[in-house]
Design goal:
single chain, 227 residues, alpha/beta, Rossmann fold, six-stranded parallel sheet, 9 helices, 6 strands, 47% helix, globular
Amino acid sequence: MPITTCVFDAYGTLFDVAAAARQAAAEGTFPALAETWPQVAAHWRQKQLQYTWLRAVAGRHTDFWQVTQDGLDWALEAMGLADPALRQRLLDLYWELQAYEEVPAMLGALKAGGLNTAILSNGSPRMLAGAVQSAGIGNVLDDVLSVESVGVFKPHDSVYDLVGRRFGCARGEVLFVSSNGWDAAAAAGYGFATVWVNRAGEPQDRLWAAPGQTLRTLHDIPKLAGV
């Protein structure tokens, strides 16, 4: 079945989630961050994701901005960096995350090839709007879909249902791309064609399904989509 619709996870896939800590460290205002920013970024992301899973299992949904703040608070405490000014700067920068360098051209190629393009993310609508605007990619996206419309985080099936509801496409017409192996695996089990963008070279998660393909960057997505 030909691909008609390409859907992307946002954070870690299109947007570099380490960019906030890296930029804050480079500014020089917070010397303690100079050597520790990679650990802060890693802890922050790990807890952010863990809190989405725990809230989904417990039926205690909140929006992604809350779990983003909660994850950062854990990370800063773990690294002994409980500085309110640093916390605020990191949160401010999270609204302006940099897109990976290949993202604009890749999305442009998909649109030029006549495909639907969208984001499907745990992010809240306001967070996603800020990231899309900051990256300047709104003109190559047909829609930005947030889990807030169903009130549960990925990988619940109701999140992936949003794609067919929006574009009227069959599951087999969708190419879903995520930097999270568990997300790509769950989407594959749902029936999407999937790509795991494994930038860090991590082992594959042992789940009920597996990503259809694995890449290190997004450069070859248009080719895989048949463009």
